[in-house]
Specification:
alpha/beta; 3-stranded antiparallel sheet; two-stranded parallel ribbon; 6 helices; 7 strands; 20% strand; disordered N terminus
Length: 163
């Protein structure tokens, strides 16, 4: 989709990829779409009334003690592999990391361990937070992420240790 002023151009597959203009004064944008927040900002900048439509909500758990324990393990370099399975997960971890005043130590530790991301959306979020992405699995499935992380972790850790 291409945004141009207050029109959205959609590619019409039935007509060999020709673009169709749609006048846009109001828009409902699904929040689960990969770039939904960017689309909302662009449309608002074009003076369209935008209504975000939440498909689901990720929220921090009420009990943060387990997450804080894992963060403590990471910042003390006792974790070798970090698996990220969605973008909201890293946002929440970083909220807690920042509240604990551990941002610098967390980012430094992440450069030493293997950071494996389930796919492009999670990888983009990691990078936006200044965190490394060592690899994405061949397919964005949990089992494949775990298997490929276990197969590649030693090699990646050795490379990082060598500098």
């Amino acid at each position: 989709t291409e945004i141009n002023h207050k029109r959205v151009f959609r590619r019409d597959r039935a007509h060999a990829g020709r673009a169709q203009a749609v006048t846009l004064d109001n828009a409902a944008v699904s929040e689960h779409v990969q770039f939904g927040w960017q689309v909302q900002a662009i449309l608002r900048g074009r003076e369209a009334d935008v209504v975000p439509v939440p498909v689901y909500r990720w929220a921090l758990p009420e009990d943060l003690a387990p997450m804080k324990r894992v963060i403590r393990e990471i910042v003390t370099d006792r974790v070798q592999v970090l698996l990220i399975t969605n973008a909201a997960q890293i946002d929440h971890v970083l909220q807690v990391v920042e509240a604990e005043n551990e941002t610098d130590r967390f980012k430094r530790s992440c450069r030493k361990l293997v950071v494996a991301s389930i796919g492009p959306t999670a990888s983009e979020r990691l990078k936006a937070h200044g965190l490394p992405v060592d690899f994405e699995p061949s397919h964005g499935k949990m089992g494949i992420l775990v298997r490929e992380a276990s197969m590649r972790a030693r090699e990646i850790l050795a490379h990082k240790a060598a500098g």
